[in-house]
Amino acid sequence: MIGFVACECLIYDAQSLKEKRAVLQRIITRLKQKYNISVAEIDHQNVWQRTTLGIVAITASRAATEQELQRALALIDSFPELERTVTTFEWF
């Protein structure tokens, strides 16, 4: 089962693209190290305080895929400098 999550996030303290990239790089690196997922910034690359992350997980069952994606979202929520707003799930 393939699960895809697009989550839009706000980074309030970023005053430049460089600061935004530093925050995102730390989050993306931690997600990739901790979970069996792929992560990338998929929208709003040239906006300071806004981003959309795409997260994909592939496992044998939908339950395992959903559990992995929920853990990844919980890790994103644990970062105080980032607020997750709109989150959409797709299944393939």
From TrEMBL:
InterPro entries found in the cross-reference section: DUF503, TT1725-like_sf
Name of one Pfam family that matches: DUF503
Xref: SUPFAM superfamilies: Hypothetical protein TT1725
Domain of life: Bacteria
PANTHER family attached to this UniProt entry: DUF503 DOMAIN-CONTAINING PROTEIN, HYPOTHETICAL CYTOSOLIC PROTEIN
Protein's name according to its UniProt entry: DUF503 domain-containing protein
Organism: Parageobacillus thermoglucosidasius (Geobacillus thermoglucosidasius)
Lineage: Bacteria, Bacillati, Bacillota, Bacilli, Bacillales
